Amino acid sequence: MSKELESLNEEELLEAWPLLSTEERSEGIRLLDRQQQEDLFLALGGRDQHAFLASLPQTERRSWVRMLPPDDAADLVQEAPPEERQRLLALLDPPARLEVQGLLAYAEDEAGGLMSPRFARVRPDLTVDQAITWLRKQAREKLETIYYVYVIDAEQHLCGVVSFRELFQAPPDKRVRDVMQVDVVTARDDLDQERLSRLFRDWGLLAIPVVDEAGRMKGIVTVDDIVDVVEEEATEDIQKIGGSEALDEPYLTISLPRMLKKRGGWLAVLFLGEMLTATAMAAYEDEIARAVVLALFVPLIISSGGNSGSQASTLVIRAMAVGEVKVRDWWRVVRREFSSGLALGLLLGAIGIVRVLAGEALFHTYGEAAVGVALTVGFSLVGVVLFGTLSGSMLPLLLRRLGLDPASASAPFVATLVDVTGLLIYFSAASLLLRGTLL
Amino acid sequence: MSKELESLNEEELLEAWPLLSTEERSEGIRLLDRQQQEDLFLALGGRDQHAFLASLPQTERRSWVRMLPPDDAADLVQEAPPEERQRLLALLDPPARLEVQGLLAYAEDEAGGLMSPRFARVRPDLTVDQAITWLRKQAREKLETIYYVYVIDAEQHLCGVVSFRELFQAPPDKRVRDVMQVDVVTARDDLDQERLSRLFRDWGLLAIPVVDEAGRMKGIVTVDDIVDVVEEEATEDIQKIGGSEALDEPYLTISLPRMLKKRGGWLAVLFLGEMLTATAMAAYEDEIARAVVLALFVPLIISSGGNSGSQASTLVIRAMAVGEVKVRDWWRVVRREFSSGLALGLLLGAIGIVRVLAGEALFHTYGEAAVGVALTVGFSLVGVVLFGTLSGSMLPLLLRRLGLDPASASAPFVATLVDVTGLLIYFSAASLLLRGTLL
To answer: Is B275 on the interface with A (CB under 8 A)?
Structure first.
């Protein structure tokens, strides 16, 4: 392995990172020069940075930790076990430690937990030329970005913003207050990261200032951190839609017991729900005994309900996540899904009827009752698909209404919900349509 | 409605945008002042910008189109029907038209289609002070960002990059070539947007320069455009995982026929596949006739396979999408999923056995054969869950290996695949374990 690693530069090593063992990572890093090591370290996430630090002797850790901007340092500290955090904080120089401690007070998934306190700031009464000179001084400290310059009064209130480009274009002797924009998109420090990412997307901004409830500016969130947020939120939604809890760790490195816990819980709950199908089937045991042919179509009927329900629920979950659909739109969703469900049900019902009649014509499988069986299958499919579509689309809205995560309306959850109803629809249709012939 | 709209500022109007009718949008915009109108227009996507333009008289369109940076103008032109594009291009001033035409040559989903040709550039032999003065002039044109300044030689080759902050910190009389970084992360103009977004994520960059095959710099992609890409790609994956094609349009505004086409296709294909369950069930018609009790557990067994398969496939699809799992890791995935599938199968099998035995103890549902039925259900569940987990996890890898999209291994697809096998496992177990008692 060492030979393979030797030929990797820091970009390739970063790409291979999730797949390497701890030893391979340490060795891979040792083979880089210091500049490459630093680039790699800065590009890693907090969890990997912490693992890398842990592999170093205590005496070498300080210079690595001090390389990090305060928001990244806070992420790293959060990844460490509680007893180790003080020791990590002690590695920072006192002003940086204060900054990091301030950030640690926020939850990881709110604006305050994502922001950096190092932003470019000027007073409103400076001239443009003075502001540029002053920024040149500030740039010596490590600022997160100087693309936007924030105009702050003596009480730390945010008065306006001016982009670097605008400052450069402006006449040098004008006052900052006369060139700044006062209509600033801001985020409260406790704003949830999902809504924060929507602000970025809606406005196409590179950075958003974070203010506390008194309107005092606390820091900025930059859009590069939002890419991670969007990706993370999508991962959580996708894992929930697939019917497990969000893993919160990479698939290949999460420990087996933790993975089983995330998957087994939902699987067991769904299994208990699905047991109702056995009860429902038992209620029709006599009908099945009299007409075994009925049992043959049970998997086809219930899976059609599950499939159409999964489609509808994932479409609505995603539309809600990107802000296209809100709970108050439920009636528009019902109308759309009623038409869709009916059309899709008629499509599958027609195919189903053709299938049964073709089976009869070719192999005489169903005897005299063939037409009755065909109609039973066809009508049930319309009902099951319509029901699946409607309940699949309403479930995410209902969950949100109850304050729960719409993404929990997973494909397996919807399928389970629809299975029992599907059986009731199917056997009721059979009772009606096959009375006097098979039943 | 007009009254409600009157009270909206441009931020609220933007948020409500997807839900408004065309008339409401036009009216909403008319009620804003010009500055707010412009902010709103710039924040809209290409499709909505085009719809807004279309609602204006021909004579008013020019000033709106000219407000757009070239990459956004190209998006807007791409949203217009082909016959209208020339007329839109004619609204631009000649240099901008050339830029936009250059961008239109690229596919929308590759680096060239996302880039802006307006980046800050300097020659390597300028001094830092000359460079800053020169940038100040460039800033008067509309640059996408001046956060990174690209160092370009006379043949347009990218020699290095220097951030504005570094330029500000550097001694004014040093040469640009001595302060620039030469180790630049670049993207080829034909790089796929999904891989491009991974570059941004891996390196935490604000912008990446785009070069052609000869290494000449063509433009930059900024991270704010990548937020949209990441969101768009996740939406496509989620919709495919739910078992439909990607809608490519907002859920509430896509026309019903187009939505039915995206959903009906997969639903019909899955339905045809699911018909095999009726064939498989028919093969065991005699066994069902002799022991109707067997039919009762069919939905429970097959849905457990489907649920565990959906879990496994969505976890692997997502891990592949974020670059954690590659095709060559298939054996590691098999090992993980074998252990997981076995453990989860044992869990559900144990619950299943308890369920049957409890049913017998309480209601004497299954008579003498209760133990046999319990074992049949238990063993089948282990087999079905293990098979579901393994095939669900391998299917996305197989699809990628075949050059197809792993996300097509949707929850309903996996469920359908597992249903037929689940029936075979269940009835085979029954034949073995119930021979001599029920069968």
So the answer is: yes
